[in-house]
């Protein structure tokens, strides 16, 4: 039975690497896959899913206005696919997650989404909230904090290494870096959300 999967984690856990490896495993067995990733700026054309360890693959890009059921249907008409992979799934809209759920149910295709659970302010991304609600199966891709505990949170740092607590959920092209931390060390860096 086809399912909607949500593989979630914090930053730098290796989600894209896992996605690319899984897709590769299908292709090695002569089964085609359809890769999607978020279009974060106005650059048109083909996207690419790249991992920090140096591997990558071409992917179609989705913008906030794209109907993903239509995109998957159009791809299926060009040839059989074994499953759909979605990177940067935190940037899906709630509507788009429903469209992917329709692709699972009506086209009987497994859809594997990979994304961040929470943003730098400790809030769920819209796509992740919808996936937590709708996914048939969820798996945590684990990474660790500097203390060795499981990292579940992320901070955004400026060039001097100070934690940034305000700003847009998505920052494009800045000089900020992201560091994944356990909740205790996240609170040490930015304080409790409720105290702000
Ligand atoms: Zn820690």
Notes on the protein architecture:
This protein is an alpha/beta fold. The chain has one domain (4-141): 3-Layer(aba) Sandwich (Rossmann fold). It contains five helices and ten strands, in the order E-H-E-E-E-H-E-H-E-H-E-E-E-E-H. It has helices at residues 15-28, 68-78, 94-107, 126-134, 183-190, and strands at 4-9, 33-38, 47-50, 56-62, 83-86, 111-116, 137-140, 153-157, 163-164, 177-181. The strands form two sheets. It has a seven-stranded mixed β-sheet, sandwiched between helices. A three-stranded antiparallel β-sheet has the order 9-8-10. The model has no long low-confidence stretch (mean pLDDT 92). Zinc ion is lined by residues 145, 147, 149, 181-182, 184-185.
Q: Please state the CA-atom Rg, rounded to the nearest Å.
A: 17 Å
Q: What's the story with the biggest beta sheet?
A: 7 strands, mixed
Bound molecules: zinc ion
**Contiguous helical run count:** 5
In terms of quaternary structure, what is this?
Answer: single chain
How would you briefly describe this protein structure?
The chain has 196 residues and is an alpha/beta fold. 29% of the residues lie in helices and 25% in strands.
Write the layout of secondary structure elements.
Elements: E1 4-9, H1 15-28, E2 33-38, E3 47-50, E4 56-62, H2 68-78, E5 83-86, H3 94-107, E6 111-116, H4 126-134, E7 137-140, E8 153-157, E9 163-164, E10 177-181, H5 183-190
Parallel strand pairs: 1-6, 1-7, 2-4, 2-5, 5-6
Antiparallel strand pairs: 3-4, 8-9, 8-10
Residues 145, 147, 149, 181-182, 184-185 line the site of zinc ion.
């Amino acid at each position: 039975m086809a399912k909607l999967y949500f593989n979630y984690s914090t930053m730098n856990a290796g989600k894209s690497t896992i996605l690319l490896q899984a897709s590769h495993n299908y292709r090695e067995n002569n089964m085609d896959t359809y890769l999607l990733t978020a279009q974060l700026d106005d650059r048109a054309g083909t996207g690419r899913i790249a991992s920090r360890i140096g591997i990558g693959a071409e992917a179609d890009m989705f913008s906030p206005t794209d109907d993903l059921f239509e995109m998957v249907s159009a791809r299926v008409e060009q040839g059989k696919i074994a499953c759909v992979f979605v990177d940067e799934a935190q940037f899906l809209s709630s509507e788009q997650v429903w469209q992917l759920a329709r692709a699972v149910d009506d086209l009987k295709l497994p859809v594997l989404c990979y994304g961040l659970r929470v943003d730098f302010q400790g809030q769920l991304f819209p796509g992740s909230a919808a996936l937590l609600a709708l996914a048939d199966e969820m798996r945590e891709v684990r990474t660790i904090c500097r203390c060795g505990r499981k990292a579940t949170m992320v901070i955004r740092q400026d060039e001097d290494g100070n934690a940034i607590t305000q700003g847009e959920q998505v920052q494009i092209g800045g000089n900020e870096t992201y560091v994944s931390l356990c909740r205790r060390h996240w609170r040490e860096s930015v304080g409790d959300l409720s105290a702000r």
